[in-house]
């Protein structure tokens, strides 16, 4: 028999991006993604003194089943490892045909996207940007500013996250600071 869920609402604090509702909170520190940054010496030096919080994701709880929509708010803190801006791990959806919508709430960021055959592109995001991640594109976000970069994401609940492909090949581009500005450079370690 079809189970009927009661309608409900949650609340996002638009000042700090935090979600108020029973939820799952995921925190990623530098040590959780140390191999993803380009400069191993900078990672090592940083980890010797501290293990900074790079980003946090607050998720609502819905069944991860076809028909439901899952949403979350991501806060990427400002910072760099060497000259590379703080970023998310990035992933393909396990169900690669599942798209996603991101809505910028605060700060400035890049949304980096890449197909399986290595086509890589990016969109700039700020408060009010509604970015569409089409099916079959891996996606990573990067904070390119001096305040937290906060965005809302909504996607089919069955999408799932495949982190391994990105851990193995990386993205074709990296975002680094040059003369105080964010610049995209080719990733020499890209194996895709
Ligand atoms: C987002 C991401 C979130 C964190 O909600 O999961 O920004 O990035 P990583 O999952 O790559 O660590 C999303 O794209 N969900 O599908
Ligand atoms: Zn996603």
Protein architecture, described:
By secondary structure, the protein is mostly beta strands. It has 2 helices and 17 strands. It has helices spanning 40-49, 164-169; strands at 11-12, 19-20, 23-29, 53-60, 69-76, 80-81, 84-85, 92-93, 100-106, 109-114, 120-125, 130-133, 138-143, 149-156, 161-162, 173-178, 181-186. A 6-stranded antiparallel β-sheet has the order 3-4-5-14-9-12, with no helix packed on it. It has a 3-stranded antiparallel β-sheet with strand order 11-10-13, with no helix packed on it. Strands 1-2 form a two-stranded antiparallel sheet. The termini are far apart. 5-phospho-D-arabinohydroxamic acid binds next to strand 5, strand 13 and strand 14.
Question: What's the short story on this structure?
Answer:
By secondary structure, this protein is mostly beta strands.
Topology, pairings included?
Blueprint (H helix, E strand, L loop, with lengths): L10 E2 L6 E2 L2 E7 L10 H10 L3 E8 L8 E8 L3 E2 L2 E2 L6 E2 L6 E7 L2 E6 L5 E6 L4 E4 L4 E6 L5 E8 L4 E2 L1 H6 L3 E6 L2 E6 L6
Antiparallel strand pairs: 1-2, 3-4, 4-5, 5-14, 6-7, 8-15, 9-12, 9-14, 10-11, 10-13, 16-17
Bound molecules: 5-phospho-D-arabinohydroxamic acid (PAN) and zinc ion (ZN).
Alpha-carbon distance between the termini? 45 Å
Percent range for β-strand residues: 35-45%
CATH topology: Jelly Rolls
Order of strands, widest sheet: 3-4-5-14-9-12
User: So, CATH architecture?
Assistant: Sandwich
Q: Could you name the ranges where pLDDT drops below 50 across 5 or more consecutive residues? A: none
How many helices? The count is 2
Using the CA coordinates, give the radius of gyration: 17 Å
What is the domain tally?
Answer: 1
- What's the order of the H and E elements? EEEHEEEEEEEEEEEEHEE
Alpha-beta classification: mainly beta
What integer is the average pLDDT? 95
Based on CA inertia axes, which overall geometry fits? Answer: globular
Name of the top-level CATH class: Mainly Beta
Bound molecules: 5-phospho-D-arabinohydroxamic acid, zinc ion
Helix content: under 10%
The CATH homologous superfamily is named: Jelly Rolls
Largest sheet: 6 strands, antiparallel
Tally of strands:
17
């Amino acid at each position: 028999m079809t189970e009927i869920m009661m309608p409900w609402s949650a609340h996002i604090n638009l000042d700090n991006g935090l979600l108020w509702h029973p939820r799952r909170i995921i925190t990623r520190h530098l040590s959780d993604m140390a191999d993803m940054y380009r400069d191993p010496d900078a990672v090592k030096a940083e980890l010797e003194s501290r293990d900074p919080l790079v980003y946090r994701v607050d998720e609502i709880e819905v069944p991860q089943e076809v028909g439901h929509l899952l949403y979350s708010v991501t806060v990427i803190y400002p910072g760099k490892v060497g000259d590379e801006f703080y970023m998310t791990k990035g992933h393909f959806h396990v169900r690669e045909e599942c798209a996603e919508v991101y809505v910028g709430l605060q700060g400035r960021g890049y949304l980096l996207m890449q197909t399986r055959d290595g086509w890589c592109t990016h969109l700039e995001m700020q408060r009010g940007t509604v970015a569409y991640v089409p099916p079959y594109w891996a996606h990573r976000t990067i904070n390119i500013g001096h305040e937290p970069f906060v965005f809302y994401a909504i996607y089919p609940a069955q999408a799932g996250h495949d982190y391994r492909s990105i851990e193995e090949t990386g993205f074709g581009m990296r975002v680094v600071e040059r003369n105080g500005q964010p610049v995209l450079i080719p990733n020499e370690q890209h194996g895709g």
